[in-house]
Amino acid sequence: MGSITLSRVTKRFGTVEVIPPLDLQIDEGEFVVFVGPSGCGKTTLLRMIAGLEDLSSGSVEIDRKDVTRVAPAKRGLAMVFQSYALYPHMSVRANIGFPLRMAGVEKSEIDRKIETVADVLNLTAYLDARPGQLSGGQRQRVAIGRAIVREPKAFLFDEPLSNLDAALRVNMRLEISELHQRLGVTTVYVTHDQVEAMTMATKIVVLRAGVIEQVGSPIELYRDPRNTFVAGFIGSPKMNFINGTVAAEYSAATIGIRPEHITLSKGAGTWQGTVGVVEHLGSDTFLHISTEKAGRLTVRADGDIDTTYGDTVFLTPQANRIYRFDADGNALGRNS
Ligand code: ATP
């Protein structure tokens, strides 16, 4: 239960084609994250799966059944949005039970399901509270509860954490991942946050201007990005790109090297540089270094490094972690 197949789907708003023909297979139980810059079509694609947006052409299948012309409510999917959209005058209990009441489910059955969902989401103590009495994270849990209670074939999340503060985001990220592990329900999740994509997904779909740039597990995309766009999007801090003569030494138009794959030394190394801004994160230090040969580079070093602004340092890239790209930005493979 819960496989989703998009075949040659397209979307036009007026004359603007936002999604050119696109194919995607989402298997049962997967946690698929759509990631990409603002305006790349993530939400549109999710809404096309949900049935909230008509397709200009192509088809959507759920569990191998064509649902392209089936109404959203009949697709058996549950959507959780960025805004919680809870009913303020109803208790948590009534909010969670709402979809079941609408579906005409018997009261004792509704009560039983609400109790189970509240238990899963740690909301039992709040069942009689109103949304206004809850924190942002608790409200988002109620919204998720309202989605779970319907026992959908798949969950569709549209940037559900973007209204929460940083600490709460991390908590909710864990909770949603744990929920997926426990329930095993197919999940499609939209975010522009590559950390959310990396930490939650079993499969990431990287989109640019409505086109799938690459699909793969987080670690596949990190290890073997297909082009400079994916290489620059996955990983934090971002991969460094170097053009010109340095790249030519590796028979490439551009080479890419991640901040964590550059060794910093005060004595000797491949590229000499001057330290600019130093960002101490506690666990790590990010150094922004200007080199004559390779331009500006970001380097990740130990948290307790004592290098400061203006120091002269030497940088050595790990030889087998240098990514090579052609003039169009397509991967040529790694240096070996
Ligand atoms: P964000 O991360 O900013 O939410 P997104 O990747 O989810 O962006 P979409 O909201 O799917 O992007 O929008 C994709 C493109 O389609 C954008 O260029 C947007 O302006 C356009 N678009 C979306 N909805 C409509 C609409 N109803 N009418 C016209 N254009 C639209």
What does this structure look like?
The protein is of the alpha+beta class and 336 residues long. The chain folds into 2 domains: 4-229, Rossmann fold, CATH 3.40.50.300; 239-334, Nucleic acid-binding proteins (OB fold (Dihydrolipoamide Acetyltransferase, E2P), Beta Barrel). The chain has helices at 42-50, 92-102, 107-120, 136-148, 166-183, 194-200, 218-223, 228-233, 245-248; strands at residues 4-13, 16-26, 31-35, 57-62, 65-66, 77-80, 154-158, 186-191, 203-208, 211-216, 240-243, 254-257, 262-265, 271-280, 284-291, 295-302, 312-317, 323-325, 331-334. β15 and β16 form a beta hairpin. Adenosine-5'-triphosphate (ATP) is lined by residues 13, 18, 36, 38-44, 192.
Short note summarizing the structure:
The chain contains 9 helices and 19 strands.
Give the tags.
single chain; 336 residues; alpha+beta; Rossmann fold; OB fold (Dihydrolipoamide Acetyltransferase, E2P); 2 domains; six-stranded mixed sheet; five-stranded antiparallel sheet; 9 helices; 19 strands; binds adenosine-5'-triphosphate
